[in-house]
Specification:
With 902 residues, this protein is mainly α. The protein is built from 38 helices and 9 strands. The strands form 3 sheets. The chain has a 5-stranded parallel sheet, with helices on both faces. Strand 3, helix 5 and strand 4 form a beta-alpha-beta unit. Helix 27 runs antiparallel to helix 28. 48% of the residues are buried.
């Protein structure tokens, strides 16, 4: 493909200006531009020479050192001939007193710089030299009196969103890629459906112009989506081709070999033979030794590059031989290095190795395979171990290292999963996906890998492997909004687990009690989430049983607190807000002790929702600010993951409405990133928003997706949380019967009153020890006007109506009894004692009944009156009843006889 001269100079304006200023400085003899193959140093040098000639009118002369046996001597002879010319013919400008001529030198190695400085100084000319070895070029330039500059890659997109398609297209690497693609395919346009493929291709190629031009040649004929699918897989997947990448045609190595040959308009044979950037460059390299060949062969196993530790261990290179072999490959540009993060078994490092984006290099001989038999299986098991250690770090508190390691190696881990499935290593594959769940929860990434496990061979129905597989598939179905499919899988898992337990009881097989207990708790957890949208009562019971089961297993506090947060949110949506608050506070307390920023941030977000539902905006903002402050230290993916676990919870029905909330959250997060925003810009390409947009788009359709995304971009993140609370919460602000008075201070010092701040149905008030947190920083209200309990069928997440039908509008004061359903005498007495400020325990003692009976009476009274708090009950009693007539006198204490023995 023939490239116009200006095709690869997008985004180089600042560099051209700086280099032009150096060349016009009389103290500078010349400039040396260094960089790897395809970085664009020759194009940049030509652009600078053109700008120099336009600005000064001076002559520019090209010099190709590859055409001479001794390039240094040939350059000195050229400079001497220029010196012999008359000054008027040599210098540009009017009268021959302008800038000196500029020589553009290509293919001059550092060893050929001797004597050039003296010749250039005597002739009064300027040089701009291109070199491939940065360190050697810098040393030679300083010794020759030249200024050295390293040419870097073009800026790349770090994320993408349909909200800013034009902004993405202005990024220099994208401009170059699209312009090169458009030259071959004039009908191509960047649109929302191919935006992610274009952006991630430019980021994957790290903004290297030569790689972008070659990639555009492939994309113009195969399509940008096909190219990205190949980039997203292994470099060389073998004869079978990568899973889902289209077989032979989707193999990256095969695409490069097919499209990376000589272009239709080829240079001269001599230039092609000496061009340092041609596909046959490997012929100039001397024979590699055994360690170098093994490193080069194993580097083709990785997707998106690898860390030095992974390459060394999989290639089975001794530690003392690894540095020299790696330096050789880097020096010959057979491998490239970048500052992108890469995972390690003990965390991560900011060094990553990449194969150049060019046709295959035939340097690996028959002895290039590692010492072990199957390097691909070694690759799979290394990354399975990395996934395990990263998940453990996320669960145990070193969460930034765990998330970064998993995120940087996500593609290699996925390739490892494909390998394990291909060789039939079912237990290892299931364990890898199980470890990946921790990362998906932390980052909000789509839960899609579980579907790959369906390719595993069939197993007997009562094996633990089948149970674990069904649990993973059920969890994926829940996250995808398919609770019916999840419940069917959970039913199979329950039956399989019961079979294992039954066989163990008969002595036919052994059962691990701890593992069985954890599987049972996990099954109940998933069943509770799946049933919550339509059977909230059964769901709450299952979730609380799951919490109790996880409590009994000491060690996995991260999993316990996540189950508690799901139970808390389910209570808020379908049950007791007081219980919801208590569970969230308990999870927050435990996570804070464990330094678990992920769970702490999610718990604070839930508390923000609960406070917003009570109408306490200042308190809600405080919780939200604390949540984001803790989560943003882990990166934007952690903030987004926590937000989606609340706003996009599968505890709510109607997948379309949930998807709209998720898209609005993505829009708000995209708008909040950047300087002065709530979220920091990423330090490297992470595509947090772009990947989720592509996954969720299909749930809404293009028009609905773009509408929800635009709506979210115009809504601050704290307001999204408050809107969610207003739509989905059953909590309402508790009216203050005496505005301006602290409701926690009693009027009569002789009467002990319970704080009248609970805005909840108090069926679980006796077990809510953390009410003080919910009532912190009370805000005086201007009015004590009561609001009616809303009809649950009115908001967008309404599930099946309550069995007793929707609540009726309240009568003046607080709703009044429902028609034909008056309070019983005992309920009237309990209501009167609530009015006096007595606690549940005090009411129980006064009436000589159990405390749980009091709670049941309060719950039934609230249902009949249409109230949502003890305060509303008290207000109703004050407006409709003579309290003294209902209040029973305190009975004399009596001794309860002990039961007879037997």
């Amino acid at each position: 493909m023939t490239d116009p001269p200006d095709r690869e100079i997008f985004g180089r304006d600042r560099e051209i200006s700086e280099l032009l200023a150096l060349l016009t400085d009389t103290a500078t003899l010349g400039v040396v531009l260094s960089g790897g193959p395809g970085i664009g140093k020759t194009r940049l040098a030509r652009a600078v020479a053109s700008a120099y000639a336009s600005a000064s009118g001076a002559e520019t002369i090209g010099f190709d050192g590859s055409a001479y046996e001794d390039p240094g001597a040939a350059l000195i002879r050229l400079v001497a001939r220029l010196r012999e010319r008359p000054r008027a013919a040599r210098d540009g400008g009017p009268g021959g007193v302008g800038a000196p001529p500029l020589i553009l030198v290509e293919g001059l190695a550092a060893a050929n710089h001797g004597g050039v400085r003296a010749a250039v100084a005597r002739a009064g000319v300027r040089l701009i030299v291109t070199a491939r070895e940065p360190l050697a070029a810098a040393t030679a330039a300083s010794s020759a009196g030249f200024s050295a500059r390293t040419v870097g890659p073009l800026p790349v997109p770090f994320d993408c969103s349909a909200l800013d398609l034009d902004g993405m297209c202005r990024i220099p690497s994208v401009r170059l890629y699209v312009a090169s693609l458009h030259a071959l395919n004039p009908a191509f346009r960047v649109q929302h459906d191919n935006q992610e493929a274009v952006a991630r291709t430019c980021a994957e190629l790290r903004g290297i112009p030569g790689a972008l031009v070659l990639a555009a040649r492939i994309a113009a004929l195969e399509g940008p989506e096909v190219l990205w699918a190949a980039l997203d897989g292994r470099f060389d997947p073998g004869p079978e081709g990568p899973a889902g990448a289209g077989g032979d045609s989707g193999s990256l190595a095969r695409l490069l070999d097919a499209y990376g040959g000589p272009a239709p308009a080829t240079p001269s044979p001599r230039a092609a033979a000496t061009d340092p950037d041609t596909s046959v460059r490997a012929r100039r390299h001397p024979e590699l030794d055994d360690a170098e060949r093994r490193l080069l062969a194993c580097s083709r196993l990785f997707s998106g590059g690898a860390g030095p530790e992974a390459l060394r261990r999989i290639a089975d290179i001794p530690l003392n031989a690894f540095p020299a072999a790696l330096e050789t490959l880097l020096g010959r540009h057979l491998l490239n290095v970048s500052a992108l993060p890469s995972g390690r078994l003990d965390g991560f490092t900011r060094t990553r190795l990449h194969i150049p984006f060019e046709p295959s290099v035939p340097t690996a001989g028959p002895d290039s395979a590692p010492a072990h038999d199957n390097p691909r299986l070694s690759h799979a098991r290394y990354y399975a171990e990395l996934a395990r250690t990263a998940a453990r770090r996320i669960a145990e508190g070193d969460q930034y290292a765990g998330i970064t390691a998993f995120r940087s190696e996500e593609r290699n881990i996925r390739c490892a999963l494909d390998t394990l499935i291909g060789v039939g290593a079912a237990d290892e594959a299931i364990a890898l996906v199980d470890h990946a769940r921790t990362y998906w929860y932390a980052s909000g990434a789509p839960f899609t890998w579980a579907e790959r496990l369906t390719a595993l061979p069939e197993t007997p129905a009562d094996t633990p492997r089948r149970t674990r597989l069904n649990l993973l598939l059920a969890e994926a179905a829940i996250r995808a909004g398919e609770p019916e499919a999840a419940l069917a899988l959970l039913g199979q898992a329950d039956a399989d687990r019961a079979g294992v337990v039954g066989r163990a009881e008969r002595g036919d097989a052994a059962a691990d009690d701890a593992e069985e207990a954890l599987l049972a708790s996990r099954l109940l957890h998933l069943r509770g989430i799946a049933e919550a949208p339509h059977r909230p009562g059964e769901a709450l019971a299952a979730l609380h049983t799951a919490v109790a089961g996880h409590r009994s297993h000491i060690g996995d506090g991260h999993a316990l607190h996540r189950v508690m947060l799901d139970a808390s949110l389910a209570e808020f949506l379908h049950g007791s807000p007081a219980k919801a608050m208590a569970l969230a506070v308990e999870a927050l307390s435990g996570a804070t002790r464990r330094r678990d920023a992920l769970v702490s941030g999610t718990a604070l977000l839930q508390l923000s929702v609960f406070a917003a539902a009570r109408g306490r905006e200042a308190e809600a903002d405080g919780y939200f600010d604390r949540a984001v402050a803790g989560l943003r230290t882990l990166g934007a993916p952690a903030v987004l993951g926590a937000l989606l676990s609340v706003l996009g919870t599968p505890l709510l029905p109607r997948t379309t409405a949930r998807a709209a909330d998720v898209v609005r959250c993505l829009g708000a997060c995209h708008a909040a990133r950047g300087a002065g925003g709530l979220l920091d810009e990423p330090g490297y390409p992470d595509f947090t928003v772009g990947r989720l947009e592509g996954h969720i788009r299909r749930h809404l359709g293009e028009r609905g997706f773009l509408a929800a995304l635009s709506d979210g971009a115009g809504t601050p993140l704290p307001d999204l949380v408050k809107e969610f609370a207003a739509r989905c919460g059953r909590l309402r602000p508790a009216p203050d019967p005496d505005p301006g008075r602290n409701p926690n201070v009693t009027r009569n010092p002789n009467v002990t009153r319970a704080p009248l701040m609970s805005a909840t149905s108090d069926r679980d008030a006796a077990t809510a020890p953390n009410r003080s947190l919910a009532t912190a920083r009370p805000e005086p209200r201007a009015s004590a006007k009561l609001r009616p309990r809303p009809d649950r069928t009115a908001h967008p997440y309404a599930g099946p109506p309550d069995a007793d039908g929707p609540a009726l509008p309240p009568a003046p004061g607080c709703g009044g009894p429902l028609p034909g359903d008056p309070l019983t005498p005992r309920q009237s007495q309990v209501s009167a004692l609530i009015t006096l400020g007595l606690s549940n325990k005090q009411i129980a003692r006064r009436l000589q009944i159990s405390e749980w009976t009091v709670v049941n009476h309060i719950r039934e009274t609230m249902r009949k009156l249409g109230c949502s708090s003890r305060v509303e009950i008290a207000n109703w009693v004050h407006h409709t009843t003579d309290v003294s007539a209902l209040t029973p006198s305190a009975p004399a204490p009596t001794r309860v006889p002990a039961p007879a023995p037997g």
